[in-house]
Design brief:
The complex is a heterodimer of chains A (272) and B (159).
Chain A (H helix, E strand, L loop, with lengths): L3 E5 L2 H10 L3 E3 L6 H6 L7 E5 L7 E3 L3 E5 L4 H6 L7 H5 L4 H6 L2 H4 L8 H8 L3 E5 L6 E3 H6 L7 E8 L6 E7 L7 E8 L2 E2 L2 E2 L3 E5 L6 E2 L1 H7 L6 H9 L15 H16 L6
Helix pairs in contact in A: 9-10, 10-11
Chain B lengths: L1 E8 L2 E8 L4 H9 L17 E4 L2 E4 L12 E3 L12 H8 L9 H14 L5 H7 L11 H18 L1
Parallel strand pairs in B: 1-5
Antiparallel strand pairs in B: 1-2, 3-4, 3-5
The chains are: A alpha+beta (272), B alpha+beta (159).
């Protein structure tokens, strides 16, 4: 089976082509779509791609960071000002995958993949779309809720730059240095007078899509990041999760080890 | 539907007709005839199909061939320097870094991508550069030592 490839110079035109054809998929770096094409996925009959330079756009200001959907993990690693995201980008595949895999594509990676999307969720990122009427932005957790339904084309992501030393990430894997996630955890832990205020914690591979650990976030509010302070958060660490059994780990195992790794992350003892 | 595609392969202009939506691996092997590129998983998992696209390592099995139009592709077929083997190829032989040899083309290209960017890699750099390439024979250590040795020998030659 061959597929039709449609290439557009403007992202808006690619968005139009994508929304007009049910069997069309947008090609980012290829690590997801080309794999499906190689497996002769009958739901893909058209590949839509765009050479729009806006996809590769990185805008860094003191307050807000914008990443084009086509920014690769290698491009993240090459940007010194995004050093807080380097452990996350480095956790995505080997060098050849990092040269191809994109920020936008990671939003569509099936569990247990999607480590970068997990980090973006902890950063309270919003998703931007191409085409349609005007500029649209959608909170990432809402996007995950409707990911399977839409044919909208993601053009980029935006988030507030986290305060220094407040962002943490860990990936638990059986194979080192590169392996698929048993689970991943990303957290943004702002402190005021030594106490957590407005924590954001996200899990990867603990549900069909990355998800916020809202119970743990609430339990951390106003607490200190020490053994006693984090105990209530650990007690509710698995609330709301629905991991699955796969070749990497069982759902039971994921639930068992999640509090252990969340504890290490919160105490600052975790390594990405 | 056949699609024309042109790019540079190991420094020479090549042109081929490929099925629309083909991956670069299939085009290199079946349309152009460069059989030094090996296919393992066609899932972007094993690394044996690694080639360089404009100097960067890419998994040719999950790279859309049409996206490579006008680019420079390097495969193991272009690794020799005239009559001489590349220092990486010599080092792989010296260190018995190939057993069945199936992963070797991908390992060599992943290692070349590293040395082209970083002629003095640490062991950690080498491990990271090769972490996307699977070898079921050697246990990796001979390959890591070969890459470190190739870097040293190439640097001695340049000095």
């Amino acid at each position: 089976m061959t597929v039709t490839v449609k290439t557009f110079a403007r992202l808006a035109d690619a968005a139009g082509a994508l929304s007009s054809e049910r069997s069309a998929r947008f090609l980012g770096g290829g690590t997801l779509v080309m794999r499906a094409v190689n497996e002769v996925d009958p739901s893909i009959q058209t590949i839509v791609r765009s050479t729009d330079p806006g996809l590769l756009h990185i805008a860094l200001s003191s307050g807000r960071i914008e990443l084009g959907a086509g920014v690769t993990m290698a491009a993240i690693l090459a940007e010194r000002e995004l050093a807080f995201l380097h452990p996350v980008a480095r956790a995505v595949g080997g060098p050849a995958v990092r040269e191809a895999a994109t920020v936008g594509g990671n939003l569509f990676a099936r569990s247990p993949y999607g480590d970068f999307a997990t980090a973006l969720l902890a950063l309270d990122a919003t998703v931007m779309f191409a085409g349609g009427l005007g500029q649209r932005e959608l909170p990432l957790d809402e996007f995950f809720g409707r990911r399977e339904r839409g044919s909208s084309l993601v053009s980029g992501l935006a988030f507030k730059r986290p305060a220094a030393d407040t962002f943490r990430f860990t990936k638990v894997t059986r194979v080192h240095p590169k392996g698929i996630s048993v689970l991943s955890i990303a957290a943004q832990l702002p402190l005021a007078s030594g106490r957590v205020t407005g924590a954001r914690i996200a899990y990867g591979a603990m549900a069909q899509t990355p998800l916020r650990a809202k119970a743990a976030e609430r339990a951390l509010e106003g607490r200190t990041l020490d053994a006693a302070g984090i105990a209530p958060a650990l007690a509710v660490a698995v609330d709301g999760t629905s991991p699955t059994d796969d070749a990497i780990a069982s759902a039971w195992w994921r639930r068992e080890i999640l509090p252990v790794h969340l504890r290490r992350l919160l105490l600052g003892a975790s390594q990405a | 539907m056949k699609t024309p595609i042109q790019f540079q392969l190991n420094g020479e202009d090549v042109a081929a007709f490929s099925d629309s939506g083909s991956n670069l691996l299939d085009v290199l092997r079946e349309s152009i005839g460069d059989l030094t590129v090996k296919g393992g998983c066609w899932q972007g998992t094993c690394g044996t199909c690694t080639v360089l696209v404009d100097g960067a390592p890419r998994l040719s099995c999950v790279t859309l061939a049409e996206a490579c139009a006008g680019k420079s592709i390097e495969t193991v077929a272009g690794l020799r320097r005239g009559a001489d083997l590349h220092p990486l190829q010599n080092a792989f032989m010296e260190h018995f870094a190939a057993q069945c040899g199936y992963c070797t083309p991908g390992m060599l290209m992943a290692a070349k991508a590293l040395l082209d960017r970083n002629p003095n890699p640490t062991r950690e750099n080498v491990v990271d550069a090769l972490c996307g390439n699977i070898c079921r024979c050697t246990g990796y250590e001979p390959i890591i030592q070969a890459v470190l040795d190739a870097a040293r020998s190439d640097n001695r030659r340049r000095a």
